[in-house]
C-alpha cells in the first residue's frame, strides 16, 4: 500500500492515518468539517491535498448511518482500488450498499475494537490499535486484492485480524461494547442527583464502572441507532436479572428466616455468575486477569514516584503485567496496584520493602 484516502478524521480515522503515515503511506484526509482534517494534518496524519488519481485504499471512518452513501459515492468516482469502512456496525451498511447497487466486490466491512472516551482528532494516537482485535467481515463476493489490502491496513496499524460474519459481529459488539456504554451511563446518571456527601465517597470501583460514561452522546446515538435490536435483547435479559436481584434483596429485609436465606442464595448466584463471566475476559497474553496477584503500594502524588516504583520492580527482575492507580479522595496520595505473576509476588514484595516502599496487605 502506497496511498490511502481517509474519509472522516475523528478519533478512529485520524489514528489510522497517523499509523499509516508513520509507516510510509501517503495519506489524504477529508471530512465534512474542514477544521478536523486541518488538525489531523497538523498532527502528522497526512495531507489535506486531494489525491491525483485513485488511491490504493479508501478508509471510510464516518458514522454507521452514512457509511453506505459515502462508499457508494467514492465508488462512483473511482476514488480507490478498494474500500473499507471501520464502523462499529456491519450488517446494516452492507444491506444499504446492496440496495444502492454498489460494487460489493471492492468493499469490505471492518471494525477495529479500540477507542477512547474522548473523541476528535486531538484524541488520536498512532498506537491506538496496537495488539487490538480488528474484525473483518468478508463475503464470497469480496475481491481477494481488496481483502489483502485491508489485511495490510490491519498489519500497518499493528492490530490483530479477526474474521467474522456481519450478524455475529453485531451481536458480539452489542454485548461487549454497546450495552456496557448504556449501563455505564445509567449508573453515572444516578450520580447527577446524588447528595454531595455520597459523591465524595466515590472510589475506584465507581470510577471504573463509569469511565466510559464520559463518551460523546452524539457519537453513541449514531452507533446505537444502527444496532438497536441486539442491544435491546441483551438489556431485556439484564432487566430480568435485575428484577430477580431486587426480589432477592427485598427478601433479605424479611423477618422470615427462610425468605432471608432465599434472598442470600439469589444474591450469591448472581455474584458467582459474575465471577464465572469475568474469568472468561481475556487479559494480557490471553490469560484471565484473575491469574495475576496484586501487590498494592501506597504512593504520594509527586513527580517521578511512578517511575521510581517501576524501576525498583525492574531491579527486582519482576515484569509488571498490569497496573491500576486508586486515588485517595482529597489527598495528594494514592494506591498503586501492581499485577504480577503469583510466583513473582513474594520476591517483589521483599525487594520493594528493602527499597523503602510500604506494602498494603
From TrEMBL:
Q: From which domain of life does this come?
A: Bacteria
E.C. number, please?
Answer: 1.3.1.12
Biochemical pathway: Amino-acid biosynthesis; L-tyrosine biosynthesis; (4-hydroxyphenyl)pyruvate from prephenate (NAD(+) route): step 1/1
- Domain ACT span(s) in chain numbering: 294-361
**This protein's UniProt keywords:** Amino-acid biosynthesis, Aromatic amino acid biosynthesis, NAD, Oxidoreductase, Tyrosine biosynthesis
Family affiliation: Belongs to the prephenate/arogenate dehydrogenase family.
Name of the featured protein? Prephenate dehydrogenase
Amino acid at each position: 500500500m502506497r496511498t490511502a484516502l481517509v474519509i472522516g478524521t475523528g478519533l478512529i480515522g485520524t489514528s489510522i492515518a497517523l499509523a499509516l503515515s508513520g509507516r510510509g503511506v501517503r495519506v489524504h484526509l477529508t471530512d465534512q468539517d474542514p477544521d478536523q482534517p486541518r488538525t489531523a494534518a497538523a498532527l502528522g496524519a497526512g495531507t489535506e491535498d486531494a489525491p491525483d488519481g485513485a488511491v490504493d485504499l479508501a478508509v471510510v471512518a464516518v458514522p454507521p448511518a452514512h457509511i453506505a452513501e459515502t462508499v457508494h459515492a467514492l465508488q462512483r468516482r473511482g476514488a480507490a482500488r478498494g474500500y473499507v469502512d471501520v464502523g462499529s456496525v456491519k450488517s446494516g451498511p452492507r444491506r444499504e450498499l446492496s440496495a444502492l447497487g454498489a460494487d460489493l466486490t471492492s468493499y469490505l466491512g471492518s471494525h477495529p475494537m479500540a477507542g477512547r472516551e474522548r473523541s476528535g482528532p486531538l484524541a488520536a494516537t498512532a498506537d491506538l490499535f496496537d495488539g487490538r482485535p480488528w474484525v473483518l467481515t468478508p463475503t464470497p463476493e469480496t475481491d481477494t486484492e481488496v481483502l489483502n489490502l485491508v489485511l495490510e491496513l490491519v498489519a500497518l496499524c499493528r492490530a490483530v485480524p479477526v474474521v467474522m460474519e456481519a450478524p455475529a459481529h453485531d451481536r458480539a459488539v452489542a454485548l461487549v461494547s454497546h450495552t456496557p456504554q448504556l449501563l455505564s451511563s445509567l449508573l453515572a446518571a444516578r450520580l447527577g442527583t446524588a447528595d454531595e456527601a455520597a459523591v465524595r465517597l466515590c472510589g475506584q470501583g465507581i470510577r471504573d464502572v463509569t469511565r466510559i460514561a464520559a463518551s460523546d452522546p452524539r457519537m453513541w446515538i449514531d452507533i446505537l441507532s444502527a444496532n438497536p435490536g441486539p442491544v435491546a435483547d441483551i438489556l431485556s435479559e439484564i432487566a430480568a436479572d435485575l428484577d430477580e436481584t431486587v426480589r432477592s434483596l427485598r427478601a433479605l429485609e424479611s423477618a422470615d428466616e427462610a425468605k432471608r436465606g432465599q434472598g442470600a442464595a439469589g444474591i450469591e448466584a448472581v455474584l458467582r455468575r459474575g465471577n464465572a463471566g469475568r474469568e472468561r475476559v481475556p487479559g494480557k497474553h490471553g490469560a484471565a486477569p484473575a491469574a495475576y496477584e496484586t501487590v498494592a503500594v501506597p504512593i504520594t502524588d509527586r513527580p517521578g514516584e511512578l517511575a521510581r516504583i517501576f524501576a525498583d520492580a525492574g531491579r527486582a527482575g519482576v515484569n509488571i503485567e498490569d497496573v491500576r492507580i486508586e486515588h485517595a479522595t482529597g489527598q495528594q496520595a494514592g494506591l498503586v496496584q501492581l499485577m504480577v505473576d503469583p510466583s513473582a509476588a513474594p520476591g517483589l514484595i521483599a525487594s520493594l520493602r528493602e527499597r523503602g516502599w510500604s506494602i498494603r496487605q
